Amino acid sequence: MTDYPVIPGAEPFFSAGNDTGCLVIHGYTGSPQSVRYLGEYLAEKGGFTVSVPRLPGHGTAPEDMARTTAEDWLQCVRTALAELNERCTSIFVVGLSMGGTLSLHLAATQQDIVHGVVTINTPLFINNPQFAALAFAPDAPPFLPGVGADIKNPDANEISYNGAPSATTRQLFVLIATAREMLPLITCPVLAFRSREDHVVPPSNGPYLIDHVSSADKRLITLEDSFHVATLDNDRERIARETLQFIRSRQRTEKQTYTTIAD
């Protein structure tokens, strides 16, 4: 089996800090680079223990990703969560795009560990019939056009694949569908960001998420100056600042009752 080197800049990130842990997860065909600014901000400004893993098959080559499954991606973030749980008393999970979908899986299935979840342009549905048709198409090409690098800021760049392996599209759809069905199991505090203009994930995913989780404490923030990869875009500082505030205010008050806010 071929071993593919990690693209420079796409390496995972870990910073040991205090007893509040933050698991930050990148998206489909992306790499830790897309959320590294957010992870470093939480480590520096919050003093948190921050883990930014590299999902299997990501940050290397599309051919490498073609060999992976949703189960591989889930196992990766479960392992990272367990490692944080060994050293932290409260843990928050943060995810961009499919990383947010993975975060919701953890929040639904690891309720005793996840104290809060933050999602950024996270898909629970894609509304792309042509893309869905390729998931089980026998004549689908090996690789499809990439879905990354949807960024408004012309000076920002994402390390992502130009093409997505067709074999992983069905994995993505299964992951999304199961997360959507499990939303009522989520009771921890939720902060969701959605870009008003997103060319990958319909912005209506944000309100849908807020409407279907069982959390009493949930907030939706609309980003006005970023596209899909908002963690690298013009609103990246706001995302980092709001996420830091969200975590700080809930580190030791996760049993408190909160009011739902949407803007």
Automatic annotation (TrEMBL):
It holds the Pfam family Hydrolase_4. This is Serine aminopeptidase S33 domain-containing protein. The active site is at 97 (nucleophile), 198 (charge relay system), 228 (charge relay system). GO terms for molecular function: carboxylic ester hydrolase activity. It comes from Alkalilimnicola ehrlichii. Residues 22-233 form the Serine aminopeptidase S33 domain. It comes from the Bacteria. InterPro entries: AB_hydrolase_fold (IPR029058), Esterase_lipase (IPR012354), Hydrolase_4 (IPR022742), MAG_DAG_Lipase (IPR051044).
